[in-house]
Write a structure and sequence with these properties.
The chain is an alpha/beta fold. The chain folds into three domains: 146 residues, 2-Layer Sandwich (Chitobiase, domain 2); 371 residues, TIM Barrel (Alpha-Beta Barrel); 151 residues, Jelly Rolls (Sandwich), CATH 2.60.120. The protein contains 18 helices and 26 strands. The strands form five sheets. The chain has an eight-stranded parallel β-barrel, surrounded by seven helices. Helix 4 runs parallel beside helix 7 and helix 9 packs across helix 11. The radius of gyration is 28 Å and the shape is globular. The N and C termini lie far apart (62 Å). The structure holds acetamide. The site of acetamide has 4 residues, from loops.
């Protein structure tokens, strides 16, 4: 019913927008649902006072935030008096379809924000702050009169930060919470545990923070390459840290005052090397530094996890507790006697069901304590727990499957929501995991797949950006990856689709960069953006386009780039191997013959490859190019050995080609697998 009201409200607003009233361009991000220019200006000055009918803690928090805001509003005012900002809780009505809805009216006399909850008033204040000039101290500033009516598209608007791979101090977390609130995000997903370090004090299990929170390596990469070892804080090389329970309470309260719910994530059953190093009895091998998955046959695993979650629930009031669930290898379970015994006694046919058994048990435990289980989409494997909510990261399919089974979901697909990908031409950027996610692509995301019915759509709670920090060794680097992409995500999450426009947003994002910098945030300099790989933007019409290509070995199905014609379709790849333009081969050579249809004069034959060693993408060991008139006897033209160093960490492209003059009908192009194993990728065999 509430959703229907929301839809009705949006429809009414859309009608209003077209009613001939003067639409305002307030410059607010995320863009409000409705803005109407009014006559006159309001002068904000030192005498501007604040009146609110909020009570209790919400009142104290609100007044304190306004006092500390750049506007330094501390004068107490009276309702509707001149030069007063009124913050008024009003009764629920159709005008306010959600508790987060608000209306903001700036007139020449005063400013009034109305909402049906503290959250709504808070968002009205964030919009007001954005209407003001916060970059310099001004004696008095004039605000154009405006009427804004606003409501969020989604109830869940999230940011995830990975504090395991590189520890993120609580001050950094609070700083990001400030900006989340400013852009009306309301869920902070705190990735507190993972192989690279346990980050939350658990009183019952002190080794988690005495040892598993520290490692003798500065960066995740060094730790990963050198045996994934931990140490104590006393080790002179110790790097890492953890949040004490007092730190956690402080962050949770800080976020709460800004209407942000903090959702803790405790990883299980995979990504748990750090736990199993200090409590090896919870692993299948019983030895440290062997397993990454908990042993599910062992009842002490459940005792441990339930004890941990008990302390976690005491610290986090969030309804959702995230239990991870992603990327368990499930390897040791196949031979572990305890896991096998559990599978036998529970009548399970595979290890997916064993994982599902564990998630079901954890859900029961959380439910018994009044909480709800949230997990990455692998929790669908082997059967989803009855009340679980799915966070869809491996594309949208997990979310779609969950919704079709009647479960709620949060969309966070890698392609649009993973802020660990490059945001611009990789040669101009700090190292990233791989991929290419420019601002425009984040902005283009629609979290509601077209394939869903009206009822199914209601189960999409919202959307979240994920910041995995493997390749972000410094806090500055982490911020650089977050901003300004977080603004685009905020608009995806808040703004009605019919109000979105990238050109309009881009102008606002450009202006946001100096603002973010003035507040001490390290943002990507959007004005210098290069954009997509230039060759990928135009179709190249060379001699092989549309010709018959024969493969000796099949490409890898998930990286088919559209199939057999991909290497002769005139379409070049972008900066990311997963952009459906690059064709991948693993364990096999790329070995193709192109029939040009008739004998012709050829001057060059070439293909580009890329190397990005994080995900295991390598240059070919060497390439052999030959031609033939009859398709049987081939004349070698060139053999090219790879000369790209294998320790070159950043993404690099290289073309392997021949140039000269030859007449031929058939082109044979062979790229041999690299000795490293992994993938080789190319996007086009260009014949000219
Ligand atoms: C994930 O990115 N492994 C959830």
């Amino acid at each position: 019913m509430k959703r229907n009201l929301t839809n009705l409200f949006i429809l009414l607003i859309a009608l209003l927008c077209n009613s001939g009233k003067l639409a305002a361009q307030s410059g607010i991000t995320p863009k409000p649902l409705y803005e109407e220019q009014q006559k006159g200006t309001f002068t904000l000055n030192k005498k501007t006072a604040v009146y609110t009918n909020l009570e209790g803690e919400e009142r104290t928090n609100m007044l304190s935030l306004l006092r500390k805001s750049p506007l330094k509003l501390s004068k107490k005012g009276k309702l509707n008096k001149k030069n007063t900002i009124n913050l008024l809780l009003v009764d629920k009505s159709e005008e306010f379809p959600s508790l987060e809805s608000y209306q903001l009216s700036v007139s020449s006399l005063n400013i009034t924000i109305t909402a049906t909850s503290g959250a709504g008033l808070f968002y009205g204040v964030q919009s007001l702050l954005q209407l003001t000039n916060q970059n310099k101290e001004v004696e008095a500033q004039k605000l154009p009169a405006v009427l804004i009516k606003d409501t969020p598209r989604f109830a869940y608007r999230g940011l995830h930060l990975d504090a395991s791979r590189h520890f993120l101090p609580k001050e950094f977390i609070k700083k990001q919470i400030d900006m989340m609130a400013y852009y009306k995000l309301n869920r902070f997903h705190w990735h507190l545990t993972d192989g690279a370090g346990w980050r939350i004090e658990i009183k019952k299990y002190p080794l988690l923070t005495e040892i598993a929170a520290w490692r003798p390596y500065d960066t995740w990469k060094e730790w990963w390459k050198n045996g994934k070892k931990y140490c104590t804080k006393e080790n002179p090389k110790a790097q890492g840290g953890y949040y004490t329970q007092e730190d956690i309470k402080e962050v949770v309260a800080y976020a709460q005052a800004r209407f942000i719910t903090v959702i803790p994530e405790i990883e299980m059953p995979g990504h748990s090397e750090e736990v199993l190093a200090v409590y090896p009895e919870l692993s299948c091998s019983g030895k440290p530094y062997v397993d990454s998955d908990f042993c599910i046959g062992n009842d002490s695993t459940f005792t441990f996890l339930e004890n941990v979650l008990t302390e976690v629930m005491e610290l986090f009031p969030s309804k959702y507790i995230h239990i991870g669930g992603d990327e368990a290898t499930k390897k040791s379970w196949k031979t572990c006697p305890k896991c096998q015994a559990r599978m036998l006694s529970e009548n399970m046919k595979d290890v997916d069901q064993l994982q599902s058994y564990m998630i079901h048990r954890m859900e029961k435990f959380l439910n018994a304590h009044g909480r709800k289980l949230l997990g990455w989409d692998e929790i669908l494997q082997g059967g989803l727990a009855p009340d679980a909510t799915v966070m869809s990261w491996r594309g949208e399919q997990g979310g779609i499957t969950a919704v079709k089974a009647g479960h709620q979901t949060i969309m966070t697909p890698g392609e649009f929501c993973y802020f660990d990908a490059y945001q611009d031409d990789p040669s101009t950027q700090p190292e990233a995991i791989s991929g290419f996610l420019p601002l425009k692509k984040v902005y283009s995301y629609n979290p509601v797949p077209d394939s869903l019915s009206v009822d199914e759509r209601k189960l999409i709670l919202g959307v979240q950006a994920n910041v995995w920090t493997e390749y972000m060794p410094t806090l500055k680097h982490t911020e650089y990856m977050i901003y300004p992409r977080l603004l685009a995500l905020a608009e995806v999450a808040w703004t009605a689709p019919e109000r979105k426009s990238y050109t309009d947003f881009y102008e606002r994002a450009l202006k946001a960069i100096p603002f973010l910098e003035s507040r001490g945030y390290n943002a990507f300099p959007l004005k210098d953006e290069v954009g997509e790989r230039p060759v990928s933007l135009v179709r190249e019409n060379h001699l092989a386009v549309g010709k018959v290509i024969t493969y000796k070995n099949k490409y890898y199905q998930n990286y088919s780039a559209g199939g057999d014609s991909a290497l002769v379709d005139g379409l070049r790849g972008g900066w990311a191997y997963a952009d459906h333009r690059w064709q991948g081969f693993i364990g096999k050579d790329l070995d193709v013959t192109i029939d040009l249809g008739s004998s012709m004069s050829i001057h060059s034959i070439s293909a580009d490859f890329m190397q990005i060693i994080g995900p295991g993408v390598w240059m070919p060991r060497n390439v052999e190019i030959s031609v033939s008139e009859d398709g049987t006897t081939f004349t070698p033209l060139k053999q090219i050995d790879n000369d790209v160093p294998e320790n070159k960490e950043k993404l690099i492209f290289r073309d392997f080609g021949w140039g000269g003059n030859v007449t031929a009908r058939y082109v044979h192009y062979v790229a041999h697998q690299n000795n490293k194993g992994g993938f080789i990728f190319t996007d086009e065999i260009v014949v000219k």
